[in-house]
Design a protein that fits this description.
With about 400 residues, this protein is α+β, with helices and mostly antiparallel strands. The protein is about 30% helix and about 25% strand. The radius of gyration is 26 Å and the shape is globular. The relative contact order is 0.14.
Length: about 400
């Protein structure tokens, strides 16, 4: 339908990413379908899906740059620390009067919330979104089905253990840690057997196939892997890895939830166990945007698209005037801005020798640009280039499911 409207010149391209068209003629009667925006917040990637009448019409995966922000702050910290050891002018300390407000989040964590909100506001501007569903709570809805349930039974319903299994699958790479087999049924295995004092803590749990689980039995892992010192050390090291991603999600989920309520739309929540239960129920692969589509209580689901938009946050620029090496010395010329309005990172099209090239541009000078795409560099004067998309701090791509 969109292609027909564009070919008959009844509509025009309003925005490239996400691809949006706008009608040229105003209709007196406008009928829109209610669209639900669903979110699957993650530490590194957030899944977004638009669902109407149990049909997924659009999906995206928003890749955050929290680690990049953390690395930039650590680099700034190192540069400032080296400055204190040099004979430079005295600067009065400014950190003595700085206070953190209530609900303060680290910049790398706050970025996840703000970036998600930015895209929610964009989608609300382009589509008639009526409500938002977010994966938030960790318990299931057993009490709604059985009001008399209480205590430990309240959390041990049909979804009990889904969050633990899902975390272990991500942590251990979805394969048996002992034999390395993939795409087979896996069981939760205690690194230190419970009969020898082992606990049910996440740091003591791993995944193993049935054969390896039965072979190990109640033996110590040192006895079971005797002679395989590399594998033993790898398992012990990975078992002690901190819950970094889980902590990032837990730290930002309530901040994101409260920010969503400020948009003025109804916001519903669901658990991660319910999301996985729905995904397995409908036989969908594990991807962030499909997990977002499975958030909440759904009876039926149809996928009408197989190409989610991959959105990678890169930031607009840097505070540095020039690039520096690992010792802090400048290795490039200071940045320059020109009056023609082009920025490095804009997406443009150029036709040269009868061949059209589209890609990100690099500003060469006040009169010359260069498109870099598919390993090629095509340069020319400003008049040869047609701007398609302005630099907005993101890069875009598509991934076929």
């Amino acid at each position: 339908m969109a292609r027909k409207l564009l070919n008959t010149e009844k509509a025009a391209v309003f925005r490239r990413y996400p691809f949006t068209i706008i009608l040229k003629e105003v209709k007196t009667e406008i009928v829109t379908q209610p669209i639900e925006l669903k979110l699957d917040p993650g530490s590194k990637t957030t899944g977004i899906a638009l669902v109407t009448n149990n049909k997924v019409i659009w999906g995206a995966q928003l890749q955050h740059r929290g680690q990049q922000i953390k690395d930039s702050l650590e680099t700034r910290k190192a540069v400032r620390r080296s400055r204190r050891n040099r004979h430079t002018r005295y600067r009065k300390p400014r950190f003595l009067n700085r206070k953190r407000p209530n609900g303060w989040l680290a910049p790398s964590l706050l970025h996840r919330v703000l970036t998600t909100l930015t895209w929610l506001k964009r989608l609300c501007k382009y589509t008639p979104i009526t409500n938002i569903a977010q994966e938030l709570v960790k318990f299931d809805l057993q009490k709604l089905q059985n009001p008399e349930i209480s205590g430990l039974e309240y959390q041990q319903g049909e979804l009990q253990g889904y969050e633990i299994r899902e975390y272990l699958l991500e942590k251990w790479g979805r394969n048996c840690v002992y034999c390395g087999k993939k795409d087979i049924p896996l069981e939760i295995e205690h690194i230190k057997p419970k009969s020898l004092g082992g606990t049910n803590r996440i740091s003591n749990l791993t995944l193993a196939c049935r054969n390896c689980n039965e072979k190990k039995g109640s033996r110590q892992i040192e006895d079971f892997l005797s002679g395989k010192f590399d594998l033993l050390n790898k398992i012990k090291k990975q078992a002690k890895q901190p819950l970094k991603d889980a902590t990032a999600v837990n730290s930002t989920r309530w901040k994101l939830f409260n920010s969503l309520k400020e948009l003025g739309l109804p916001v519903t929540t669901s658990s991660g166990g319910k999301t996985k239960f729905n995904r397995i129920k409908f036989g969908l692969p594990k991807t962030h945007w499909l997990e977002a589509a499975c958030v909440g209580n759904i009876n039926d689901l149809k996928i009408l698209t197989n190409k989610p938009l991959i959105i990678t946050a890169k930031g607009r620029s840097t505070r540095r005037l020039c690039r520096i090496n690992k010792y802090g010395f400048p290795i490039s010329k200071p940045r320059q801005k020109y009056q023609h309005g082009w920025q490095t990172g804009d997406i443009a099209k150029v036709v040269k020798n009868g061949v059209s090239y589209t890609g990100k541009i690099v500003v060469q000078s006040a009169t010359r640009l260069e498109v870099r795409t598919q390993g090629k560099r095509i340069g020319g004067q400003l008049s040869l280039f047609q701007r398609i998309h302005l630099l907005d701090g993101y890069i875009y791509g598509f991934e076929s499911n």
